[in-house]
C-alpha cells in the first residue's frame, strides 16, 4: 500500500481548474520532487494531500486515511503529516523552544517536559540547540527554516511535505537547509518536495514529477527525468533553470 495515493484528482478555484486529473503515488520511504513553472499547481497538489485545500474530484489516501471521505477527521490527518513552507511560518512571538513544543502539547496532548525533551532532540539534530531561547526574528532565514523542519519532525510525522523550502533564502543559506533535507531523505523519511533545486533532486529523489497547467506531465525516475526521454515542456523548463 502506498503512503500517499493520489487518484484522478481535479480541483477548481471557482471557474478556474487548477488541477486536472492528477494521479501519482508515493511509496513509503520515497522522495518525490515536484517541479514545474510558476502557477502550474505544485503548491495546490501538496495542499490537497494534507487537506489544507479541498478538491472536487478524485481520491487521495494517506496511509489508511481517506482524505476525500467527508467522515475523515482532517485535523488528525494534518497532525500526522509534516509541512514546511517557503516562509518558515514560525510563531514570531514565541521562543524557539516554545515553537517546537506548542503543537506537540496542543495537538498530540504531550506533557510539557516530554514535548521539550522531544523538540530539543530535533533542534539538536538540525544543529541549533544553542538557539533554543531566542525568538525567530533573531535567527537567520536558513536557521528559521531548520527550526521549522525540527518543529515538523517533533510531531513524529508519517510523511513530510515541503513547498519551496529554500526559495525565500539568501543563496548562502540554501545548502544548510538542503543538507538537513538530504539527511532526512537518507534516513528513510517519505517526502514530497516542491523545489527547483535540481541538485537536491539528483542527489536523493526517487522520482520526479513535472507539472504544467495543472497536469502531471512527467512522473518518472530521476535518471529518466534528467536523461533524454522527457517531454518538450520539461526540457524547456530545465533549460531555463539548470
Ligand atoms: P505553483 O505552486 O505551481 O506556483 P499554485 O498551486 O500556487 O501553483 O497555483 C496554481 C494556480 O492556481 C495559479 O494560477 C494560481 O494563481 C491559482 N490559485 C492558487 N491559489 C488560489 C486561490 N486561493 N484562489 C484562486 N486561484 C488560486
Ligand atoms: Mg507554489
TrEMBL record:
Pfam families: ABC_tran. GO terms for cellular component: plasma membrane. Keywords: Amino-acid transport, ATP-binding, Cell membrane, Membrane, Nucleotide-binding, Transport. Residues 4-238 form the ABC transporter domain. It comes from the Bacteria. It is a peripheral membrane protein. SUPFAM superfamilies: P-loop containing nucleoside triphosphate hydrolases. One of its GO terms (molecular function) is ATP hydrolysis activity. InterPro entries: AAA+_ATPase, ABC_ATPase_HisP-typ, ABC_transporter-like_ATP-bd, ABC_transporter-like_CS, MetN_ABC_transporter-like, P-loop_NTPase. It is found in: Cell membrane. Belongs to the ABC transporter superfamily. This is Glutamine transport ATP-binding protein GlnQ. It comes from Usitatibacter rugosus. The gene is glnQ_1.
